[in-house]
Q: What sequence folds into this?
């Protein structure tokens, strides 16, 4: 299951991050993202009603979406996320208790890392992939620099990825990207413009697939 989930992520290359969306809009947001070709959805636990949203979206879209919990900062949050049905856990930090809990319960944990030392430590402790954050501040070429000595470790580049640089980030070796407000735009959701969310998702998915096609040549 664990390897299968990572293989699916490496194929699809995009995690859409739901953070702070208006209450009650989770289902429509998930539907809009799925319609645009997104299959990985991260719901951050600092979003109002996040645990209920994980359960709700997993119940309705479990055959189309892989639903995980984000901004999981400690063991208590990890346990609550898994109990709500989260299929994977993503953090902005490396919490060794959270990682150990995930391994023990067969739930993927992709911890937040920035330095080579953090990345290698997380991998050695059992993380199958790591989140590299914040790419927007570090610069997209940071992934290229990391992948030179650490090409055996799958990395999810998060923070600052948009339509103008997603192909560059993936081309530098990121296994996937985490897309927050540049894809899951809260002002569009507030206005009920879910069609625009679908169009954005389709645009990102198309670019990600082009990188895959290029790499296969």
A:
């Amino acid at each position: 299951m664990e390897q299968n989930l990572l293989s699916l992520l490496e194929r699809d290359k995009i995690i859409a991050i739901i953070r702070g969306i208006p209450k009650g809009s989770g289902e429509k947001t998930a539907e809009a993202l799925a319609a645009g070709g997104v299959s990985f959805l991260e719901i951050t636990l600092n979003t109002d009603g996040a645990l209920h949203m994980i359960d709700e979206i997993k119940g309705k879209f479990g055959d189309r979406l892989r639903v995980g919990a984000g901004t999981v900062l400690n063991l208590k949050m990890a346990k609550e996320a898994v109990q709500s049905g989260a299929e994977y856990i993503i953090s902005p930090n490396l919490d060794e208790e959270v990682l150990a809990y995930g391994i023990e319960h067969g739930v993927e944990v992709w911890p937040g890392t920035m330095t080579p030392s953090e990345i290698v430590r997380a991998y050695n402790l059992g993380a199958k992939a790591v989140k590299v954050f914040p790419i927007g501040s570090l610069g997209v070429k940071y992934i290229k620099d990391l992948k030179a000595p650490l090409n055996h470790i799958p990395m999810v580049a998060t923070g600052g990825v948009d339509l103008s640089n997603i192909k560059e980030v993936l081309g530098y070796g990121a296994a996937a990207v985490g897309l927050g407000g540049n894809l899951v735009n809260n002002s569009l959701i507030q206005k009920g413009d879910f069609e625009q969310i679908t169009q954005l998702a389709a645009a990102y998915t198309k670019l990600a697939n082009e990188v895959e096609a290029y790499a296969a040549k």
